[in-house]
Design brief:
By secondary structure, the chain is mainly α. Helix content is about 65%, strand content about 0%. The protein contains 28 helices and two strands. A two-stranded antiparallel ribbon has the order 1-2. Helix 8 runs antiparallel to helix 9. The protein starts with about 30 loop residues before the first helix and ends with a helix.
């Protein structure tokens, strides 16, 4: 008896089988008497499993490496696939191109070579998935003009193609091109709008992001959770608590109201708007939490001056089995810095690497410098800066410079300015701060010297501004500014407040630094 290949054999068949003939039996031939005894079995002798397409098998292996970020291994498998004579399909190309886009530092040359191969097969223009993947790859490489060439040559485009090109323009700072592409879209969906809104948020143009979200609402397109996360980020940066509350009510009506990322964004928004009580309410009601959830509430407590609660939640996070990351320790160190808990902060800093195996980054050294600076231990802070394994940035040095003003340490401030002038030669804030340090201790010649140096270098002081939110609108004010539509009312109120302060006995300080800042 001969069995077709890949036929399932029951366990009770113990007799040895003859090897199959050189050609498989014809399924149309009548069943022999020897085969008839198996006819009533619950399986068919002609039941076979189709062999797996070798292209699918190779592509699956490539995809597995790509998902795990092992681009070199994926390239090696692709090379062996070609040597084996197996032709890739469009899924193979999309898999490789998407991986190249996500790991561009390793993949620029390989991505271009894959494009050449796809071009040879006509897939870059003839297959919408391959063409779109190429557009996304070149956009992430920063070669947005090349991405546009690919986009223009595509024989067929879908909404994903248009959205990818729009997002490519936004991520590369070509806002006008992105808006033109958006206007030319045959159809706009939530992803189209999110490409613009999210792009404005990443560029720090938060007012623009909120304006386009308003337009999205008027268009009738329902936002998805990615859109709302971007809008919440804009609310957090602008401090628009009123709009944030409205967003929270909107989210509660959606099916993704329990989405972890949405709730994490709400915690961050409330904390950065100074409403830590609401942030805690969101955290407390979450059915499920991640490390990001814990980090958001820990950092939220820390930046709002609730050091004890921040450290309490840091310890609670560890007790519940969550593994802390670098952000967790940044929150805990910030809490210690604000509360003046130097010894506790030092223990947390050392345990970060010794116990938890988390490498130090520049922000952790910055927290350590701030910890010493706020405690008045300026030499210890300087010692950290001099011994840290990476070069300090202007944030780390600026933290110590600010402490020099508080302590009146001109000598150290002058030493720090030598570093800062090299790191940020065109920055005005550090020069202004040093001039104010001179002024605070009565060294007017030093303040004037800094002022003259700024003029010689062509550095102008950036005017500071304050802002206030009313009815979900942001109003910004610069010192001496009279361009606001309600200027007359604003100045009348200021005069009234000034009068009431004087009646209460308040006398404003007459400092040279003030006249310098408003010069």
């Amino acid at each position: 008896m001969s069995l077709p290949a890949n036929t399932i054999i029951p366990n009770h068949l113990t007799q040895p089988l003859k090897p199959p003939p050189s050609s498989p039996p014809n399924p149309t031939q009548p069943i022999s008497s020897n085969q008839s005894r198996y006819k009533e079995r619950p399986f068919s002798l002609h039941q076979t499993h189709k062999p797996i397409d070798p292209t699918v098998s190779w592509t699956s292996s490539i995809s597995r490496h790509c998902r795990n970020g092992r681009i070199d291994e994926a390239v090696e498998v692709f090379a062996r696939m070609r040597l084996a004579g197996v032709e890739p399909n469009h899924i193979t190309f999309v898999t490789l191109l998407s991986a190249c886009a996500d790991y561009r530092l390793k993949s620029v040359c390989f991505g271009a070579s894959i494009h050449g191969y796809a071009r040879k097969l006509g897939l870059d223009t003839g297959n919408v998935m391959v063409g779109t993947a190429l557009v996304g790859m070149y956009a992430k490489f920063g070669l947005v003009d090349v991405a546009r060439l690919v986009f223009d040559e595509m024989g067929m485009k879908n909404s994903i193609s248009w959205n990818t090109m729009t997002d490519g323009y936004m991520r590369n700072g070509k806002v006008e091109h992105a808006l033109k592409m958006f206007d030319e879209m045959p159809e706009r969906d939530a992803i189209s709008w999110t490409a613009l809104i999210g792009g404005f948020v990443k560029r720090g143009q938060f007012e623009q992001a909120l304006e386009w979200f308003r337009r999205m609402q008027l268009s009738g397109v329902k936002p998805d959770y990615v859109t709302l996360i971007a809008v919440l980020a804009a609310c957090a940066d602008l401090g628009t608590l009123g709009l944030g509350l409205w967003m929270n009510r909107l989210i509660m009506k959606q099916e993704f109201k329990d989405n972890i990322k949405i709730n994490n964004s709400l915690i961050d928004m409330y904390a950065r708007c100074g409403c830590i009580e609401f942030a805690f309410q969101v955290f407390d009601k979450m059915p499920e939490r991640t490390v990001v959830s814990w980090n958001s509430i820990i950092v939220g407590f820390a930046i709002n001056g609730h050091a004890e609660e921040a450290l309490e939640f840091f310890n609670l996070m560890l007790k519940e089995g969550f593994k802390p990351d670098g952000v967790s320790f940044t929150g805990a160190l910030t809490a210690c810095s604000h509360a003046g808990l130097v010894d506790k902060g030092l223990r947390i800093f050392h345990n970060m690497k010794k116990v938890h195996g988390i490498p130090y980054r520049i922000e952790h050294y910055g927290c350590l410098v701030d910890l010493y600076s706020r405690a008045g231990r300026l030499e210890d802070a300087l010692n950290v800066i001099e011994k840290m394994p990476m070069k300090p940035n202007e944030v780390v040095l600026g933290s110590l410079l600010a402490a020099c003003r508080t302590r009146g340490d001109i000598s150290l401030a002058e030493r720090l300015m030598k570093y800062l002038s090299k790191l940020d030669p065109g920055g005005d804030s550090n020069y202004v701060l040093l001039a104010n340090i001179y002024a605070a201790v009565g060294k007017w010649d030093g303040a004037n010297r800094i002022r003259k140096k700024m003029k010689a270098l062509g550095i102008q002081k950036t005017p500071g501004f304050s802002s206030i939110e009313t009815d979900c609108d942001i109003h910004e004010f610069v010192a001496g500014d009279k361009s606001h539509v309600e200027t007359e009312c604003v100045y009348r109120m200021l005069e009234l407040l000034s009068f009431e302060l004087k009646v209460s006995g308040y006398v404003p300080e007459d400092m040279l630094s003030e006249s310098y800042e408003h010069d």
